[in-house]
Design brief:
Order of helices and strands: EHEEEEHEH
Helix content: 10-25%
Shape: globular
Structural class: alpha+beta
Distance between the termini: 25 Å
Number of domains: 1
Length: 130
Amino acid sequence: MKHFVQYHKKEKMGYPALDVDNLSIYTNKSVAATEGDWIWLIAGEGSPREYYLRAVFKFHKYTPSEKPDFTHRLSGGFGQLFDPMPKLNEQPWLPDLLKSQGNFAFGFSQITQSEVLNGLRKVLEENKMA
């Protein structure tokens, strides 16, 4: 099982992350995920940038995107949308995630650092809905 991150940038998407109402992401990158992999959707807003966890879900299905700016839609049926979204700026592992992801310039990418994954899992556990 692998873990991937996708970044939601309000300025590019045209709507804030809280308007995301389903467990899916959009990308133009080749789909490296397989069914059962986890996708973490992180949102960035404001200047200076504030980072939030919007969703985490288990990847289930790939479909062509209905959005003209993207080629792929990856969706899942098991996971969680966060509202309120946990803020990530104070997390000690965030700088490592930003560095490994080129400040999210690389798009949909695998997370390989165990420290980052453990940190994300901790945020999930602390904010899990009953």
